Amino acid sequence: MPTALPKNDPELHKAFGIILSIESFSKYVIGIAELVYDNELDRENIQRLLDQYNIRKIEDIKEELIDLLIVYINLILNDHIISDNEKLNIDLLKKYFRIKEGDFYTYRHQEVGDILHRQFERVYFDNSISKEEAMHIVDLQGLFNLSYDQFDKFKQDEISRALEQGAAITDLDTAKFPKSNSASYGLKRRYFSKQIEDLVWNRDNGKCRECKSFEQLGFDHIIPLSKGGPNTFRNIQLLCETCGRKKRDRIG
């Protein structure tokens, strides 16, 4: 079965060449890295290698494969950009290695925290967030399969620092969202703080951003949660019930 990884990807080839030259892994993890380097990573070759080292299933070496992915992620973040190809490669490698949501957080919490800290430090250094930087933050969450709560815990220190230095919450495109059963303006709340609801309401002038209706309004994610959209001020808009039904899980 041919690999699903893209052929002739010079960046992937270069990254795993570096990994093979400088990293000390077990022989079987080196063997898997060589499969990636040689563009021969597939289920059959992985199983053949596991059999060679009497490893029953790939989940038995999950922690070591997470270490391999962390090294690769560190390399692709050297330029502070995550390309579409790099995101695809990471997603495919996680599937091959059976890495599930929560695994990075459970097994390598400290290492993930160190990587995110360096990225947040760069993004928040000027106390504001551009659209590109906001999307970069969303991509970071996806790289490590983190839940919103897990990711927010990692962000908290850098956000607090920026706020203490006078940053405006709307410039940071982020906020802490305590759960609440109450509602503002008669709208259904989706775990937004009252402050964020007020900001969105005032920005959108209390009307649907699509049809300008003042009736049956609700808060909507511009990039849906199901597609990795964040719970942030800039990713929330007012839509009426009709426009919300039309949009559903589309971006926009």
Automatic annotation (TrEMBL):
Q: Name one Pfam family in it.
A: HNH
* Alphabetical keyword list: Endonuclease, Hydrolase, Nuclease
HNH nuclease domain span:
195-245
Q: Which InterPro entries match?
A: HNH, HNH_nuc, NA-targeting_endonuclease
Q: Name one GO molecular function term.
A: endonuclease activity
The source's domain of life comes to: Bacteria
Q: What protein name does the entry list?
A: HNH endonuclease
